[in-house]
Structures are given as structure tokens and as C-alpha cells.
Design brief:
It comes from Helianthus annuus (Common sunflower). With about 290 residues, this protein is an alpha/beta fold. It has eight helices and 13 strands. The protein has one domain. The termini are far apart.
């Protein structure tokens, strides 16, 4: 088996290894001498820890750190770190992300109950895609520094966010070429209006998880190049469309039984869009009076 694999071009072998979970890629080092260090050249690093055995957490963190220290590639295309253990230390996560940044990472995909990002991440010159997911909402969230500059970051995906929205806007303002933004807000903190002033943005997805029936703030959209808009969840913000001149498609998805006048006002703001998708049967039945 090993001899047949060795007939393949090196670039194909490395591609195959990059498609594997990193733990499996490292295990190929026992195949033969030629495979012993091949995994150190993979460009996709994928780590997953389910947290079923909390006593193994330290061993897992040490394994990820050893892999990052052993990497010989000039750049890491993807660093995926999914931690489902509620007791994981945020400092450990921060140090691992910092190591990935120093390897010129292009994509970061982080799932963790506790997040504390290194300063190096907020000035990473190679980062093009950032995905952050908070696994457990009752833990504290990350804090964004005042100085952010991510010159190549085009995609941001933040899920289950429940801390200060100011952090998110600090991050956005440091991304001069941002094209796609997905933001799932788990909790509103009465911090004023959400003003999205992003000239380069083409896709925007906003999901609100807080269950409340009163208006909290306004969502102001100044996005002249926006082509697609998605709004879902429980709406408790009035939308003000100051510039949607390029909008082609829009989708709205209301939680069942959570229809309010704000949804109809949102529809009125985007009534001229070419393609419109509406989800929720109860919402559709209410459109007869719209």
C-alpha cells in the first residue's frame, strides 16, 4: 500500500494528507521512512476535541502545539480548532491561534466556549477568512483591541455572539476589503444602533436569537455594493436602508410565532429587490394584509 502511494506526485500526497483530520495525517508517519515527516508539510490543520473526557484536554492541547511547532510549510491555508470542552482555558486557545498566525494562516475556524484571541490575530496580513463560534453562551467572550488591521480579510462569520457588539464593529472597521459578513447575535445589550457602513460588502447575514417583543435599536445599512441580504430569527430592530443600490436578492426567516410589525417594515424597505425568499408559514399567511 505504501509503495503504491509513493508513486503519486508529492503534491497529490500532501493534498490527500491535508484533507484528513490532522491526527490521522500525523499517524501516517509510521508507514515508512519516507512518510515519517511528510505530514509536517500539510497546509490544512484540522483539530477536534469533543470534551467527553476532560482529563484528556491537556494532552490534546499539547498535541496541537507540537504539530504547529513541527510544521515546515511556509503557509497554513486552514487552521480549524473545534473545542467542545467547557473547562478549556482561553489562554491555551490564544497561544495556539498565535502559533497559526505566525505560520501565515489564511483561514481560521475556531469553536470554543472560552475565547481570548492574541493581538497578532488582529493584525494578520495573510488572513482571508475568519469563523468564530461560541459553543456555550454563558461563558465570557473575546475582546477586540482598539487597533485592528486585517488587509486581506474578506469573510467574517461569527456565531452565537452574546458580548458587546462594539467588539464586532471594531473588527469590521479594520477590514478594508470585507465582502461577506455573517453575524448571529445571541443577546442584545442595549448599546445603541447597529450601523453597518461597509462600502466593499457584497453579502450580509444577520440572525437575532434574543426572544423579546420590543424595539431595542435600529440597524442602519450603508452598503452600496451589497448584492445579497439575509435577516432571520426574532426581529427587534428597525431597519434603515440608507444605501442598498446594488441589492439583487434577499431572504428573511422569522421564528415561528414571532411575527411583528418590524418584519413588514423590513419588507417595505426591500420591496424592489429582484429575488425575495420568505420562510415561516405563519409569516406568509400574514402577508395577505401587507
Amino acid at each position: 500500500m505504501s509503495s503504491r502511494l509513493n508513486r503519486l506526485p508529492e503534491v497529490i500526497l500532501l493534498h490527500i494528507l491535508s484533507l484528513m483530520p490532522t491526527k490521522s495525517a500525523v499517524q501516517t508517519s509510521i508507514l515508512s521512512k519516507s512518510w515519517r515527516y511528510r505530514w509536517t508539510l500539510v497546509t490544512n490543520l484540522d483539530f477536534y476535541y469533543n470534551g467527553r473526557h476532560p482529563s484528556d484536554e491537556r494532552s490534546f492541547i499539547k498535541f496541537v502545539a507540537r504539530v504547529l511547532n513541527s510544521c515546515k510549510t511556509s503557509q497554513v491555508k486552514l487552521f480549524r480548532l473545534h473545542l467542545l470542552c467547557p473547562k478549556v482555558r482561553s489562554l491555551c486557545v490564544s497561544k495556539l491561534i498565535d502559533k497559526a498566525v505566525r505560520l501565515n494562516v489564511h483561514e481560521l475556524d475556531i469553536v470554543s466556549p472560552k475565547l481570548d484571541f492574541p493581538l497578532s490575530m488582529f493584525t494578520c496580513k495573510t488572513l482571508t477568512k475568519l469563523r468564530i463560534t461560541h459553543k456555550f453562551n454563558h461563558y465570557y467572550n473575546w475582546v477586540c483591541p482598539s487597533s485592528v488591521y486585517l488587509p486581506c480579510l474578506k469573510t467574517i462569520d461569527i456565531a452565537r455572539y452574546s458580548s458587546s457588539i462594539i467588539n464586532v464593529f471594531k473588527l469590521i472597521h479594520g477590514c478594508p476589503v470585507l465582502e461577506s459578513l455573517s453575524l448571529e447575535i445571541a443577546k442584545h445589550n442595549n448599546e445603541g444602533d447597529y450601523i453597518f457602513n461597509i462600502p466593499t460588502l457584497k453579502r450580509l447575514k444577520l440572525i437575532f436569537r434574543s426572544r423579546t417583543n420590543y424595539v431595542i435599536n435600529k440597524v442602519v445599512l450603508r452598503v452600496p455594493n451589497l448584492e445579497y441580504l439575509f435577516v432571520g430569527g426574532v426581529l427587534h430592530s428597525l431597519f434603515v436602508m440608507e444605501d442598498l443600490s446594488s441589492l439583487v436578492g434577499a431572504s428573511i426567516a422569522c421564528y415561528k410565532g414571532m411575527v411583528s410589525d418590524m418584519w413588514f417594515e423590513l419588507l417595505n424597505e426591500i420591496r424592489g429587490v429582484q429575488n425575495l425568499s420568505i420562510q415561516d408559514v405563519s409569516f406568509l399567511s400574514s402577508l395577505n394584509d401587507f
